[in-house]
Amino acid sequence: MDLRSSNNRLLALAVVVVAVWKYVQRRKYLREVEEKTGGIPGTLGWPGLGETIDFATNSRVFVEARARQHGKVFKTNLMGANMVYVTSPELAEHVYNSKDFGQGTFSTFIELFGDFLLVKNGKEHERPRRLITHALADSALKSNLPYFIKEISASVDRWRGRQVFIMAELKLMLIHVMSKILISDLPSALIETTSKDLDAFGKGFFAAPIKASFTEYGKALQARARLIKMIEGQVQKRRSDPAKYAGFTDVFQNYVSFVDPDTNAEHSASFIAQNVLVAIFGSVDTTASAMASCILLANQHPECLKRMAEEFRPFFGGDHPFSADSTTLDQLACLHYMNAFICEVMRVRSPFTAAFRQAVRDAPLPGTNFTVPEGWLVGISQDYAFRSSVKNFPEAAAFKPERFMPGGVSFTHSDFKHALYPFGKGAHIW
Ligand code: HEM
Questions:
Q1: Between the CA of residue 198 and those of 168, 172, 173, 205, 230, what are the distances in Å?
Q2: What does pTM read for this prediction?
Q3: pLDDT tens string 291-345
Q4: In testing the pocket of ligand 1, which one of 182, 352, 384 has its CB within 8 Å of the most ligand atoms?
Q5: 160-191 per-position pLDDT tens digit
Q6: Ligand 1 centre and the CA of 43: distance in Å?
Q7: Side by side, which strands form the sheet with 354-359?
Q8: Which residue's alpha carbon is at the smallest distance from atom 6 of ligand 1?
Q9: Cys-Cys link to 41, which of 70, 295, 304, 363 (CB 3.0-4.6 A)?
């Protein structure tokens, strides 16, 4: 008997048996999923890989194609996590508000976010959130306005007569603007390196989670480590001379000087660095995306651009409308059409395509026969939740800034129905 060929036959047989066994197991698992979810349509994709590649290629197209095919709820598996996506305003509102869902996201996001409030619940979420929100109050915006206007005017002047990559320019401009609110004394040289590292960091969120020095995910983790080290250095600087920084009101100082009333402990440098890093990243990328969309849609709707320019002129006059020293928040609030235009842009092109939550128990979805099994993630499509809300926005498919003019739709804390979903659950100036 030929030993080698009998070994080969045995190996082939073993492979077939394992494959059949895996197949049967998978079928059984999928049947259980059907039962547990009440038959939510959609597919979990390939074992291990799920539908990650499709999603990472273009998350907007991914969601739109499935929403067209399956309606307001579908299931998928992304980056190793089973997930139910909701694409209706009513279900988005339910998931944001129901106690059946807590903070939660992909394990790769958790590795990149680190110890950040977005992945925490209760006190651990509320307290660090307040440290950020205090620095974003109206009074803080008011005092920083001249600085913002100078930075923005300088950027616009730099762009004149040149072809620019708008997203890259906006991000650079916003890092200067945001650092004033977040770490107000960050030296310019560090702002430049931060900008480069943030780009590499951001690419890690939808990259294959392979930790090697040459992969996007590996590079994102390296950039994260550099950024954390840089921010920890700033913590040491402030803590070594507390008197010098006592009057500072930026987000960073709120974290540095916080003392836990229950334990009397201050936040560690590492905790502060992780929270401030995500705040920088979250504020720059989102705002840059919102501004880029405004520029795009103003070009696609010249009649809106004309109306905004007309609104501007009597207020400020001249070619260069803003004066850093005399422009006030009240004046900006009077630019009703421009404000309405910005809201409409964010309604039709949410800068933040999805927010994520996790089911803390088996969670029925109202108005359907479906259930999100405990431990599954839920993706809330910001685009659909907001843009397609016919209840809140008659003629939802039309681009109509007028709907946000005074007397039309508003979004305030108390009026959650119309809250601006692009900012998650409600408005964003706390
Ligand atoms: C156009 C610009 C922005 C957009 C579209 C945006 C969007 C969002 C969204 C959708 C969420 C909710 C995520 C979730 O619930 O899972 C969120 C959370 C958050 N954003 Fe923004 N954001 C923007 C600018 C900013 C800025 C400038 C800051 C300032 C630091 C900021 C700080 C935060 C914080 C701290 C949270 C966490 C809130 C919480 O979990 O309670 N964002 N943002």
A1: 12, 10, 13, 12, 12
A2: 0.85
A3: 999 999 999 999 999 999 998 877 666 555 566 677 888 888 889 999 999 989 9
A4: 352
A5: 899 999 999 999 999 999 888 899 898 888 88
A6: 30
A7: 73-78, 81-86, 377-381, 354-359, 101-103
A8: 423
A9: 70
